[in-house]
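Form P-L/3: holo structure prediction, ligand copper (II) ion.
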Amino acid sequence: MNHDHMEHMQHMHEHGASFPFLSLLAGFFLLGAVYYGFRFFNTKYLTKVNGYLDRENEVWHGACMVGMVSCLAPTWFGIADLFWQIAFAVGTAWYLVRAFTYGRSLPYNKQWYDFAHAAMMFGMWWMFAAPVSGIVVTVVFTAYWTWFGSYYAMRLYNDFKKPHWLSFGQDIAHFVMAVVMALMMVFPATFMGHQHNMSAMPAHDMSEPICTSPASAPVPATSTDSAAPAQDTSAGHVHEHHGAPAAAK
Ligand SMILES: [Cu+2]
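OUTPUT (holo model):
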């Protein structure tokens, strides 16, 4: 087996394995968006089950779900990064204001819920903006998402005692989001695989946002999933970019 062939197999493997993984995750969050859409519109049902209505919660949770889809499968909707940067900045501010004002007088609410959601919005904003980077950022966000995920793992466990699809839906949505976010912080390159040729950037530039739409970050033709097999037929020079960072961009 020659070197070129091995590289070819590696190439095929990347496109065969990473693409469905990210798409499946995106599909999950798309379901989450549908779920929060349902919650938003079925006000009577929600009031009956929960005993209260909080439509801004449904809006912002839905935004998080669509934002996750945009991050994992940027071509599905083609929403610009700038949109999410603005939306999640507003969301962060929204929950901070809420935490200190009217959120405190909502009988079903707790102040720490609003802080947790402000941090959730901030985490989403970070995915699309990533103004600075470094080990401290990684550790802080990973710690936050691990705490967030653990809390919802506990709630999922409790869901089995008194099952209801509404509470299960919100708990699984939060839990999976926390797990994916924590993994994104630790393995950013894995989650950029859909848009970038992973092996072309072994030392991923940490200052680059993990979530970038195709519009704001045009990718080289060799990185598109559908075009890949056709380019693998020549004598082997097509793969030079794998080991040569200078040729990658
Ligand atoms: Cu929430």
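COMMENT: The longest helix spans residues 3-41.
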